[in-house]
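Fold sample X.
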Amino acid sequence: MEEHILLLAAATLFLYGLLARKIEQADITAPMLFTALGIACGPLGLNWISTELNDELVMIIAEVTLAVVLFTDASQIRLKHLTQFERYPIRLLAIGLPLTIVCGALTGLWLTGLGWLNAVILAIILTPTDAALAQSVMEKKAIDRNLRHSINVESGLNDGIALPLLLLALALSQLGSINQLNTSHWLEFISLQLILGAVVGVFIGRSGSYLINRAHYSHWISPLYQRLSSISIALVAFSAAELLQGNGFIAVFVAGLFMQTRHKIVIQRLKEFGEAEGELLTLSVFFIFGAVFVPLAWPYLSADIVLYALFSLTLVRMLPVWLSLLGTGLATKSKLFLAWFGPRGIASILYLLLVMQQTGTSDNYPLLQATAIVTIALSVFLHGASTSLWIWLFKARPDKTDPS
């Protein structure tokens, strides 16, 4: 049966690549297609794939993908990017992100009946955004450059910022279920995870960029291995941090931030890796999401869960973003654009997997899991299908008051 799945996935990827531009004009994105393909192959369709999550291959793909995504996203961010685009990313991250978590948690308490800590965990899972789900919009010159780059910068940083909050919330959730371990133990554990992960990330990022710069200057390294250095440094940072009892995902994110190479071509090679080999990993996770995760949510599907998902994709995201942009002088259309394009994608899927590994004994675990899955699934399709509308809106009514 594995041969059928491999053939179908490979053929889909090949055909989508051949017709990508045409398909995108119909508002069908690659994540939409691979999520739908996963659903078709899973228990809700042909039943070729089980929902068993103990498969070691699934875990390896998920962890490697998250490490690569965190590293490549962070490596593309420069300090000047935070202030270059009218400081919109700073507002989105410093004001919009925490307000989104608060609004998401309050909505979870109101609609789902989750305890306050599980509601916070759910909100954190669904806070990171994924600009790749609307990549066709991000490439259109009709959309103001400041707006497109602000969304990309926000997406590149908010997953790494949300991760420590998620780890802290998970540690607090374990205090009530592991009575033999006291509070000081868990505070020490989470501090060790965060601090050691960050220290390892700084060291690997700095030393890795120094060695790549030296090799590039000396003409020792080829373009191929400049691209492969992305996954190499990410995996070195992850493994080293885990061996030292730190958090590997914190390490790879920090390593990417401190990957300060002096050669633009090296950064371009890292970006190319993320857009090619990294995209293959990402699409694999969307396929797994459709085949394995979506069926897990099906038995728990309810009106309250769907309502939470719709709130999460609209008011829970849009109201905090709107508040964070007050006083910027942005036109209403531009604020709505930044507020709407907060799709939940790869980071949310992989953070959900981290939660599923550690909170399986919680009474509210199936409800938390199902709510997150439904929200992500709706986001994949709704945000992907909305790209043409925004492109038309900005082309038909160009806003001359927006900063250029």
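Fold sample Y, listed below.
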Amino acid sequence: MSDTPIASVQPVESLVIPERLDGRHGANRGAIGGSQLSATNDLDAVRAWLSNYADTKTTFDSYRKEAERLLLWAVVQLGKPLSSLTHEDLLLFRAFLANPQPAARWVSATGGKYPRDDARWRPFNGPLSPASQQQALIILNGMFTWLVDAGYLRGNPMALLRQRGKRAAPRVTRYLPVSLWDEVKGFVEQLPQDTAVQQAYAARCRWLTTLFYLQGMRLSEVATGKMGDFSRRLGADGRDQWWLDIRGKGGRERIVPASPELVSELTRYRKANGLPSLPGRTDDTPLVIPFRGKHRCMSRSAVHDAIKSVFGNAADRLRACGPEFADRADELDRASAHWLRHTSGSHQADGGVDLRTVRDNLGHVSLNTTSLYLHEEEDKRHRETVKRHRMNWEAQTAAEPGSMESDH
């Protein structure tokens, strides 16, 4: 370990790393003159890696978070440059992710999130779950591999960590089964509409749940989408086909069928907001219209809060039915916008829609990802097991002593 570490954790934008810790003389640096980067220190090299993801905010934020945690841990806690980390150091870091200590230095005091320029900001809001730990290591392994490929580092110490045996991918669990989805729709349908404010709220709730569910969209896709992204063309049968153009994860574009039901709901929502029934290609009205200012897209957090309020209020309505509904209400309380995307995929897959169609509608790269939405076969397996695989204690008790057949 090198000299005394620097004292405090700060976001990388404001972090000042002394020369002895900035990696210009890191033990794992590549050969002199062999780097394809202009970066001469670890922080600049990490920034060069991150620049590949600058056009996708959610990915950039996620990757910066993991790189920042490792860089800060190395220089603040270990007193070593990132480019001097060894296999043994990364074993310690893996344990650190599960329990970031000292908590006062690393973890938000309230477990909440603060702006990056707030003095209360910390790299962690609490210990990471096993899934989050694994995701962090995957991201960092990709970063190290890139730095090696760029000639900045000699080798990738992350690659030496023992990989857990591959397990069968679990089914998606963060989705609403049909019974809970019906509770959400029931709540939306009974919303009061006596005043203009109530009418606007009810119209938004109905459109939000319809759009997320029928199109299987991500939060960012809904937040940035415009009405002009809808288009129609003539089908082979001579009838109009409506489609929705979506710019998705990683900037990938996809076109998703818009059913007559969705177009009808679009017309209903537009009329409620004083707009013509159908949009034209130049219509820059946001997909979800703010209550104030019809031509300014809502932020991701605002759309998130809007759909969370639907789930929360639906949960309160269910909870009021009696204590026996508490568990189902709690499940609704946990739901978020992404649950609706999973719900859309799950209901399509279990409803018999071809997996290739579901894949393309949701914008998945791999059919393996889409197959995680198949729940019907597991439901069937559960029913069969419960029905046919039993202990039958009651039969044992009723039998006369000595009347049991021999083992077979």
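Sample Y note: The CA atoms of residues 37 and 150 lie 7 Å apart.
Also: The first helix runs from residue 42 to 50.
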